[in-house]
Amino acid sequence: MPDIIALLKADHKEVKDLLTKLTADEEPSDCDALFAKLYASLQLHARFEEEEVYPLLKEDEETKDIALEAYEEHQQVKTLLEALNAMDDEDETCNAKMNVLSEDLLHHIKEEEGTLFPKLKKAVDAETLQKLGESYQQAKAETESSEDQDEESGDAARGKKPAAKSHKAGRSH
Known about the structure:
With 173 residues, the chain is mainly alpha-helical. It has one domain: nmb1532 protein domain like (Four Helix Bundle (Hemerythrin (Met), subunit A)), CATH 1.20.120. Helices cover 74% and strands 0% of the residues. It is built from five helices and no strands. The protein has helices spanning 4-22, 31-58, 64-86, 94-123, 126-153. The longest helix is centred in the middle third of the chain and has 30 residues, at 94-123. The chain starts with a helix and ends in a 20-residue tail after the last helix. The model is unreliable at 155-173 (pLDDT under 50).
C-alpha cells in the first residue's frame, strides 16, 4: 500500500492534468465536469494535509515555517476556488482567476514535492507515513461513496458538490 507522500503526489499529477485541460486555448467540452472534479479533489486533499500532515511539520522548529507557508497557500487557493465556483459564466475575470489559480497550484505542488515532502520523510517514520496513507485512502473512499449517494438522492444540489460552471466562457484566444 502506498504511503501518504506517494498518494499526495498522485493527486498532484491529477491536478496538473486537470489544470492543463482547464487552461487550454480551447474550452474543453467537459469544462464543467473538469472544474467540479478539481474542486472536489482539492477540498479533500487540502483538508487532509491541513489536519493530518502539516501539524506533524508544525511541531518541529526546523519545519514549522514551511508548514505555516503551506497553510497560507491553501487559503489563497481556497479563496480562488470559491470565487470561481460562485462566478457567473459571463464574468470577464473568470479566465484571469483560473490562470492565477493554476499558477498558485503549480507553485504549491513544486514546493511540496521539492521541499515539504522530503522534510516530512525525514521528520516522520515510515510506519506513520504508511498509516497516513491508509487513512487518506479511507477518507477518499468515504468521500467518493458519499458523493455517489448524494448524486443518487439529489443532495448534490444542496451544496455537497460545486455547481457546474463553465469557467472558460468568452475566451478570447
